[in-house]
Amino acid sequence: MAEVHVLGQIQGARHFERNSLFCRWELRTGVGWKVVTGLTEGQTQSDTPSCGNSCVWAHPIDLHLHTKGLQDWPKLLFEVHQVDKYGRSVLAGYGFCNIPSTPGLHNLVIPTWRPRGSPRDRFRQFFLGGSTQLSEPELVCSSEDRYQLSTESTGTVLVQLALVTTLLLLLGALSAGQNATEVDDEIVTNATAAYYEDESALNETLLETSTAADNEEVATTAANASTA
Amino acid sequence: MSKDVSPNNFGRSSAEGASSRQFFVVSISGSVEAAEFPEHDELYCRYFVEFGSDWQIISGVAEGMSQISKKSKCHIDDRQLCVWNLPVELTLKSTNITGWPKIVVSVYGNDSFGNDVVRGYAWSFVPLESTATTLSMPAFVPASSSKLQEMTAWFTGRRPEFLNPAIVVHGESREREQILFIFCPPMF
């Protein structure tokens, strides 16, 4: 019922060792989020700066997401690769960021890291090139234990996102009233109709969904949501 | 560039039956001010505004071409800008935020043999806030795919360029492009 529009671009990268870089990106959403339009993954062009040290990709991110709950907020995953002079691609870093939750323009700076191999691997990489990669890239954005992993820090990815949200505050108010993280369809339909037509009906709908103990809190949230 | 968005001015175009589509109006007014290309001079630009299928132009034009501008000869001016000040005036109407307008600027100039070649492409989403904003867009240009092609392109003036500059705002199939990034941006 709440919609989030993400409009932006993966601007580029800086502070990497070598400067011919490209990036693979992916959107990870949880259960309950639906992508209405837009590409959820892609690969940027590979860019070599002619002056300065920053790569420019200017890769568009244009997404329209729809959700009925507030958990599992979407994330963007990045895998930056270097192109060496023989045309091989070598992993330069992994990074991820959460999509912002407030409307407006956001300039995100995402630091990246890559796994260090064993000393033998590093010796081999020095002469032959190549890099150590994760066998499960999901580790980058999951909260599992990583203490066995040894990594080195690499450069940063620059992303600029503008966010437009619709009915997100209302979703929060309804979730609070129900003491649940996902909201019933019927309540959603009634509330959305009320939002567009009649504000007093909206307040009634919100009050109906609250328990006796939470009445005051929901009423305040509802009042804030309708004036926002 | 200042932009006026009035999300509260929902118009209702009434149709027969129960459904009414709400639309909103976005009015863009600004200018493509200047470009900073350290290695090149005598540049002109073309811009166009790309938007989705739910959007319609109410007034204004979605594209334009500037004059050819040379950098300042003043020795105390170290900004080294090619100034165009090309106005952008456009009003759009839509029912859907998807397809929010993007402005694409392509910069061209003459090479040493007098051929018209592309110097850079840059794009940005039209800002969402209604306050005056200056956008800095870094530019890039396609690189030749081999040394031989690079040399031939230098002689004949047929450098790699995009058939349709709108490709820079599409996310599909960009992995085949090898890009040489020319650092500094046209300012908008």
Automatic annotation (TrEMBL), chain A:
Sections of the chain in a coiled coil: none
Organism domain of life: Eukaryota
Pfam families: B9-C2 (PF07162)
InterPro entries for this protein: C2_B9-type_dom (IPR010796)
GO cellular component, one term: MKS complex
Keyword Amino-acid biosynthesis in record: no
Keywords: Cell projection, Cilium biogenesis/degradation, Cytoplasm, Cytoskeleton
Principal subcellular localisation of the protein: cytoplasm
Compartments where found: Cytoplasm, Cytoskeleton, Cilium basal body
GO biological process, one term: cilium assembly
Similarity-based family: Belongs to the B9D family.
Protein name: B9 domain-containing protein 2
Organism encoding this protein: Cloeon dipterum
UniProtKB/TrEMBL annotation, chain B:
Record GO biological process: cilium assembly
UniProt-annotated location(s): Cytoplasm, Cytoskeleton, Cilium basal body
Sorted UniProt keywords: Cell projection, Cilium biogenesis/degradation, Cytoplasm, Cytoskeleton
Pfam name, any one: B9-C2
InterPro entries: C2_B9-type_dom
Gene Ontology, cellular component aspect: MKS complex
Assigned protein family: Belongs to the B9D family.
Name under which the protein is recorded: B9 domain-containing protein 1
